[in-house]
């Protein structure tokens, strides 16, 4: 190979590198999506090569997708998202503080653990005892009401049978009511 042809090949290589550098700069300045850039470079390399080069993805698909998502966000969107998250965090902190103040005002210990030794344990036991007492009273009242209803039913059945017995004597046989 002559020195002229080597020099031309070298200049061609330099021109190709300059084109690639220009494309990269345009991509960074213009915000061309990453997937378009990748496909353009892949097609350019495949057009130039005499033997087809298999395209292999060395990056994990999830990581690549996240980068594409990240690159598609504008600075305004990112700053708006960060601002919204900061506002939400501040709101949640204020809610927690309000709840703590309410618990203190109600006489509850703010950071106490619940258990048999905790003040709420004694109140819970008293509440359970009151509920058991009320349940027993309701069961006794229910049993009394059931007995009363059974007594009334028996009384009504007895009255009905007496009325039927008396009414059957006065009516002729075969007559219907």
Automatic annotation (TrEMBL):
GO biological process, alphabetically ordered: positive regulation of substrate adhesion-dependent cell spreading
Compositionally biased region (Basic and acidic residues): 143-156, 168-177
Region (Disordered): 143-177
Organism domain of life: Eukaryota
Gene Ontology cellular-component terms listed: actin cytoskeleton
Molecular function as annotated in GO: actin filament binding
Name of the protein this chain belongs to: Uncharacterized protein
Species the sequence originates in: Oncorhynchus mykiss
């Amino acid at each position: 190979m002559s020195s002229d042809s080597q020099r031309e090949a070298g200049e061609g290589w330099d021109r190709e590198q300059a084109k690639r550098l220009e494309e990269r700069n345009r991509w960074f300045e213009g915000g061309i999506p990453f997937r378009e850039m990748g496909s353009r470079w892949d097609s350019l390399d495949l057009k130039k090569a005499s033997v087809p080069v298999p395209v292999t993805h060395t990056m994990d698909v999830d990581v690549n997708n996240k980068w594409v998502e990240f690159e598609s966000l504008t600075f305004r969107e990112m700053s708006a998202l960060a601002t919204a998250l900061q506002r939400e965090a501040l709101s949640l902190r204020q809610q927690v503080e309000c709840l703590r103040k309410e618990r203190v005002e109600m006489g509850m210990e703010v950071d106490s653990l619940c258990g048999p030794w905790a003040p709420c344990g004694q109140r819970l036991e008293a509440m359970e005892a009151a509920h058991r007492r009320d349940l027993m009273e309701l069961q006794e009242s229910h049993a009394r009401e059931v007995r009363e209803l059974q007594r009334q039913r028996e009384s009504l059945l007895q009255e009905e049978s007496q009325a039927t017995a008396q009414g059957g004597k006065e009516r002729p046989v075969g007559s219907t009511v």
